[in-house]
Amino acid sequence: MAAKIVPVTTEPYTLGFIGAGKMAESIARGIVKSGLLPAAHIRTAHLGTARRTAFESFGVKVLDKNSQVVEQSDVVIFSVKPQVVKDVVLQLKPLLSEKQLLVSVVAGVKLKDLQEWAGHNRFIRVMPNTPAAVGVAASVISLGAAATNEDGELISELFGAIGKVWKADEKLFDAVTGLSGSGPAYIYLAIEALADGGVAAGLPRELALGLASQTVLGAATMVGNAGKHPGQLKDDVASPGGTTIAGIHELEKAGFRGILMNAVVAAAKRSKELSQG
């Protein structure tokens, strides 16, 4: 008979990170800053001074061993490199309980494998992206076989502390990788190119870069908040015979939209190849 799944309540519970890297730090900082969970209820393990100091600086308890983290946590988030996650989960398997909610933010590792290695199915897979570091991540979650809707709501709330959260079937995660996982790099290129254009048009470098980054931020905020389709927002700023439509014409001649679409599809294809390899 399977063990009864015990809900993780809204009362302060313990949250443990297996892996003390930058993503784990970003998630933990966001959770503490939001007030969702006191720092004293969060723990991780690391022997390196720099990583220990990073977590201890905002009150997280840093232990010496991953086993200690598992033993002291109701929710366990695996945040390690893809090439080591199997060994890490298998090492901890004897300590893992179905009373615990397990979460993975490891890129390219499927729920079915995580569940098999852990020995139970109360697992949730989350794919955040690097803007988690500044609290504006785009995260997508998918529930494992035994994860409940309440589990999903809890993890959505946790990751909502570092940005916005969507739920999706795991089969879409390669496409998610191609868009939100790799997407920040496409936007960095766009910001750099816009700044270079500003310099070419006569602006000082620092001013051009500041204007480019703030313009991208502002445009993204408009899409998120204005309640209009981006095509409509584009039409609103492109007046007849004006400067904006002249620039858009050049982008269309160069195949700008098709290039971005191709980038997402290529990254998604590569993600699928890596997850099967």
Automatic annotation (TrEMBL):
One of its GO terms (molecular function) is pyrroline-5-carboxylate reductase activity. InterPro entries: 6-PGluconate_DH-like_C_sf, NAD(P)-bd_dom_sf, P5C_Rdtase_cat_N, P5CR-like_CS, P5CR_dimer, Pyrroline-COOH_reductase. Residues 170-274 form the Pyrroline-5-carboxylate reductase dimerisation domain. One of its GO terms (biological process) is L-proline biosynthetic process. The keyword Transmembrane does not apply. It holds the Pfam family P5CR_dimer. It is found in: Cytoplasm. Pathway: Amino-acid biosynthesis; L-proline biosynthesis; L-proline from L-glutamate 5-semialdehyde: step 1/1. PANTHER family: PYRROLINE-5-CARBOXYLATE REDUCTASE (PTHR11645), PYRROLINE-5-CARBOXYLATE REDUCTASE 3 (PTHR11645:SF0). Keywords: Amino-acid biosynthesis, Cytoplasm, NADP, Oxidoreductase, Proline biosynthesis. Belongs to the pyrroline-5-carboxylate reductase family. It is an enzyme of class 1 (oxidoreductase). The lineage of its organism: Eukaryota, Viridiplantae, Streptophyta, Embryophyta, Tracheophyta. The keyword Coiled coil does not apply. GO terms for cellular component: cytoplasm. NADP(+) binds at I18, G19, A20, G21, K22, M23. Its EC number is 1.5.1.2. It catalyses: L-proline + NADP(+) = (S)-1-pyrroline-5-carboxylate + NADPH + 2 H(+); L-proline + NAD(+) = (S)-1-pyrroline-5-carboxylate + NADH + 2 H(+). NADPH binds at N66. Signal peptide: none annotated. This is Pyrroline-5-carboxylate reductase. Residues 15-108 form the Pyrroline-5-carboxylate reductase catalytic N-terminal domain. It comes from Erythranthe guttata.
